[in-house]
Amino acid sequence: MATVALTKDNFEETVTGNDIVLVDWWADWCGPCKQFGPTYEKSSETHTDVVYGKIDTEDQPELSAEAGIQSIPTLMAFRDGILLYSQPGALPAAALEEVISKVKELDMDEVRKQVEAEEAKAAAEAE
Q1: Which residues are known catalytic residues?
Q2: Is the peptide bond before 32 cis (omega within 30 degrees of 0)?
Q3: What is the pTM of this model?
């Protein structure tokens, strides 16, 4: 599966409408981004059950600001619409494979319970 260009118009729908979504935040002028690109593309051909999105930070500054992107490349991993991983830096192929494996192995019922507990705690502290 090839990578998908994500924009403010299709980002949320893509992240919430698919099981696992990886997002590569990049820019054309970024050397490490260009180094990571082929690794990311090759991985997308291996994991056809994962949606691989790319967001050009120059083309999508509002989306980049909303996501708090401060360094590129940044890789994010979502599962069931929940952000599970967000890390700047170009990953070697083996590290990217490890991230994907760990995301696939997660018990999402347990993750949802943890998210709900954290949200409840934050709400209680805000009162």
Answers
A1: 30, 33
A2: no
A3: 0.91
Pick the closest to residue 50 from 104, 90, 114 (CA basis).
104
Alpha carbon distances (Å) from 71 to 5, 35, 43, 48, 100: 19, 15, 22, 28, 21
Q: Which amino acid type is present at position 24?
A: D
Report the amino acid identity of residue 43. Answer: S
CATH 3.40.30.10 fits 4-126, yes or no: yes
- d(C-alpha 4, C-alpha 23), whole Å: 9
Rounded distance, CA 100 to CA 43, Å?
10
Q: List residues bridging with 51 in a β-sheet.
A: 21
Enumerate the domain spans of the chain. 4-126
DSSP annotation of 70: -
CA–CA separation, 71 and 88 (whole Å): 6
Q: What is the pLDDT of residues 27-79, one digit of tens each?
A: 999 999 999 999 999 999 999 999 999 999 999 999 999 999 999 999 999 99
